[in-house]
Amino acid sequence: MKTWLKRLWSLPAFLLTLLLYVLQLMTTLYIASALPRGVSDKLVDFEAVWQIAQFYIGDLCLFIFFYALLATLEKTFIKKFRWVHITLFAGIIFAKLALYHPALIEDLPGGKLLLANSPIYAFPLAVILFTGWIIVGVMQTPALLKNPQKSQKIVGCAFFLGFAIYIFWALFKYDNVTIPEATATEKSKPDVVLVTLDSVNHDSFIKNGMSKENDALGRFLNDSIEITSPVTPVAQTHASLTSLLTGQSPFEHGIRYNLGKKATDPDYLQNSLLNDFKKLGYSTSMIVDSMAFKFIPPERFDHAMNPPGGLPSVLLPMIARPFLFYSLFNNDLGKIFVPSLYLNAAYNPAFRVPLFANKTLAMLSERLQQKEPQFIFLHTCAHHWPASSSYPYYAEQKDFHGGLKFSYTSWNKAARETLTTEQWKQRASYNQALYDKSLERVRDQFIDPVLQYLEKRKKNTIIVLMSDHGENVWSTGGEYPTQRMVAHGDNLLFSARSEFPLMQIWLPNQTATKHHMTFEFQNLVPELLDFVKNGNFTPKEATAGAYTETGLWVSSTYPEQFLFFDKSGGIRDLYDFNPSNDLVFVRSELDPALLLQKQRALIKNGMRLTLHPTLTGFRLFLCDLASDINCAKNLVKENPTLVKEMWQELLKQSAPDFKNGILFPMELAELDGELQPQPLWDQIKDEDINPYQKFYLAIEAYHKAKDKDLAMFYMNELMRLRLKNNFIQYRSFDVMNSWCKNGDRDLILKEWSEGTKRLPGFMQKPAENLRACLLGS
Ligand SMILES: [Zn+2]
Asked: What domains appear along the chain, each with residue ranges and CATH number?
C-alpha cells in the first residue's frame, strides 16, 4: 500500500483541493447561517444529521476524485510543482462548470467550433468523469500491482473498474425515455390526469409555438380546449396548487404565499376536492419531483411517488444542490446510498428529466390500468427558476448585463438589480431566450413523451396540460423600472405575466374550442368534477373580474416593501421550522406585515387594475394588457367610471383583509386630477389597527393628507412598539430620513426628544443616514 500512497501523494494537489472543498463548505455554511429557528433542535437527530452528511461526504468523494486526477497528472506529466498545477486545477473546475453551461465557452477561441462538433457535449458528464477515472486508473494501476498483498491488488483494481462502470451506467442509462404500451381498460368514469408544469406562461406555449410539427404536444394543442386567460390567484406554487386542489381562493384556504404556516396544520388538505373524486369511486395519485412539495402531504393521496422529505430539502435549496453529485447519484442505484437525492429536481441542468419521465410513465401506466377510475396529479419543477439548462438547451444570445450567461440570476444574488432601460431590454430578451430553451428541454424530455403515452388513452381520459403560474421574464419593448429581477408572484405591474398560466384541456368526445375568457384558476377542478358527473364542461367566465395578488419573496423585489430581509434580520427572521414533520414555514406573526405590502389586482376583459403600496401611499394602476404589452401607461385618469367599478369589485374580493385589519379602510378620492385610494381616517380606530399598518398610515398622512403631525404620531407609535423585527425600524428610519431631507428636520427632532423622554433609550440607534440628516451634516 505504501507505493500506492506515495504514488498518489502530492502536496500542491492536496492543498488546492482542500482550498476548494473548504470554499464549497463555506458557501453551504453561509446558506446554513440563515437556517430557520428550530432547525438546531433537529440536529441532534441521527437520521437527519446523516441525511445532511451524505451531501458533504458525496461532495468530498468528488473532490477526492479531482485530487487523484490532479496528482496523477502531476506525477505522470508535470513531475514537480509549477504554476501549471493551479492552471490545471482551475481548468478542471472550469471544465466542470462549462460542461453544464455551454454558454460559458462560447466566446473562447474555438468555443463555437467545439460546441458545434464535439460529441463531448452530447454526454458531458459521462465523458469527463469516465475519461478522468480511466486516466487515474491506468496511471495508478502499475503502482497498485507492485503492492505485495494480493487482496489489496484485487480490491484496488476492482474499485477502479467498478466505479468506471458505474459512471458509464449512471450517466448514460437515463437519457432515453421509453413510452410504455397502453392497454385498453373499460371504466365507469374517465380517468383524470392533471399535468402541471411549473412556471409556464400561456403565451410561451401558444404564441411562441412551443410545439413542433406533428409532435404529441402539437396534436394535443390542436385537439384540446384552450382557456386563454386563466388567472392564478397567487402566482406562487404553494398557494396556487392549494387553490387547484381545493377549488378555493387563498382567502378561503389561508395559504397566501409559499410555505404558509397553514400547510403544516394536521388537517391541511383533509377537505380537498380529492374527497369528491374518492366519493365517485376514484383512486387518487400524486407524482411530484420536488421535496419542496412535501407541503402537499402524500398521505392525502391513495398512491404517491415523490422524493423523500427530510432536512436536506430545508437546508439545501434547489440552487445550492451540488449538481455533479446529483447527476451521478440520482438514479436507482444511488437511491440505496443517498436516498434523499432520488427523483429530486435539483439545480436545473443537473436534474435528470428523462429519469423522472420514465418513472412517471411507469406509474401512469400502472395506475391507469387499474379497474377503478384514476385521478392523478402530476407536477414537475424541471422548468422552474432559474431555468438553467444543459446542452443542447442553452441560449446563445449574448447581450446581457451582469447576469449569468446560463440563468436569470446575477452573479452574486437572487435579488433586484439596478440597470438602465437599454440594459433591461437586452437582459429581458436574453431571459426570454433562456426561458424558451429550458421549456424546449422539458417539452422534449417530459411533456412530449407523457403526451405520447396519454394520447393512446385519449378515448377515456381527461388530460389537462397546465401550469401553476407563469414567469415574469419581461418583454423587450417599452420602459423598464430600474430595479427588477426575474421571479414569479412578486409583481402585478408593468409587463408582469406570471398570473396567466397555461391551461389546455382534453375531454373525451368534446371538440377543440377556445374560451376567450377571464377564468379563475381555482374553478378548474370543480368544472372537471361537473364533467365527470354530468358530462358538462361549460367554464364560467369571471364576469366581475378575477382577483390575484403577489406572494412573498425572501428579499425585497420592489423598493416599496418595508420588510427588507436583505437589509437586516435575514431569512432567519422570516421562517420557522417544525421538526416533527421537517416543514419550514413563514412565521405567522409576520402575516399582517406580509399581507399588507402585497400588490393586489383585478383582471377583467383584458384590463388589470392594481392596488399597490408606494412610498407616497397606496396607488392604483390601470392598464390594457392587450394593447399595451408593457403595461406602461396608467389609464386611471382616462377611465374614472371603469376604475370606480373595478375598485368596488377589488374591495369586495379582498374584503377579508379589510375585515381582519390587514388593510386600513380606504376610499377613492381625487388626487392630482385622478382617482386614487385614500385612507378613511374617520374609520381608522387606533385600537383596531395592527402596528404594521402604521408604517403606511404615516406615509399616507405625510404625502396625501399633508398632516405632518399625524404622520409623526404614527411613525413614533411604530417605533415605540419596538417591533422585534429590526427591518421595520430601519425602514422607518429610511422614510424619516427622506422627510428630514424634505425640510422636516425640526419636527422629527421635536418628536424624537419627547419620545426619548418618555422612554429612555427610545430610538437610540437611528440608521446612519437619518442621524446624519438630523445632525445637519
Ligand atoms: Zn410554481
From this structure: 2-175 (no CATH), 191-307+343-559 (3.40.720.10)
